[in-house]
Amino acid sequence: MRNSELQSIKQRYNIVGNCEGLNHALDVALQVAPTDLSVLIVGESGVGKEIIPRMIHDNSPRKREKYFAINCGSIPEGTIDSELFGHVKGSFTGAINDSSGYFGVANKGTLFLDEVGELPLATQARLLRVLETGEYIPVGATEVRKTDVRIVAATNVNIRQAISEGRFREDLYYRLNSIPIQIPPLRERGEDIVLLFRLFAMQMAEKYRMDKVVLTEEAKQMLMRYKWPGNVRQLKNITEQISILSTERQITPEILSRFIPQDQETTQLVTIHSEGDHSFENEREILYKILFELRSNVNDMRREISNLKKQIEDVQTTPATAIPTTQLSPIQPIPSSLEDAVAEEYVEPVREPENLNLDAWSRQALEKALERNGGNRKKAALELGISDRTLYRRLKQYGLDK
Hints:
Helix content: 40-55%
Radius of gyration: 38 Å
Number of strands: 9
């Protein structure tokens, strides 16, 4: 591309900079624009990737058709298929009308899928089919629809790492990556940093009718040494802060140091401490382990409850003569996991004659519990470790409910 054409493009899209990496990206974008090949734009967050797809659309045969920019990371996973591919009325709660989705509305036009690396795997499979055949099925529909859409995608994640972790389809990556365009980070653009600062400072001065801030030579060198983890977006924010908050219009390194972080070597917005590489496989193994432990605990609890029920049934069905009187003890409480259990409390044994049968003993235990609690059945049941319902049933059995 001739230098005059390149400068014309930069002026049209308000692009500032002359670094080789930026010029190469613009050159590739203009060369691929007349075709229908898919384009994948790769670059860090804040480098200005959204300019490239607009430029491709405006210089393509589709420039008179519709153009949509979609942030895939901002659409909830539960609705993204409906947003992209449409749905039919009644296909889910809230679907009160048919919807064509972006692929239907943008037919003959261009779709820019920003943050394509955030798409769910099921949606990636649908997207792959559209790219290969131009066919898709709206949510809840049964008939196949056709569309003719140019796809330009962008991502700031490491796609190859996402593929190795099972978060991105390898076949979709190769389909999107027909023409790759790499946008260089701001720290690799040299003097473009100073040019961008000058542009943002001028824009602030014109917008708020104030004097423009100007960098000293030392401040320019300091600005270019910083690594700019937030790239152009971060530079613009800092320029706006300086324009508003600084009382001095001549910006020295001392003034500049108050607005940029002191750690000039970092290229990360947030430091992530990790003992190793992140892997979704490890997360799945942890979840499986927790589920297995929970299932084991539930099975143990079921066995304990079953044994307790069996012991109670044996006591209630065993004849009185088969039970040594020395082993007789008050009605034992049942753990709270059983239906009739309300508490667990020790009750002092009642000494009765040795020839006392089980029914007689049980009746006297009820009578004494009622006597000790002044006839209060609820308190008596609590003392005996049984539920109110069981107490009433036994009172009726022994004729004590009058």
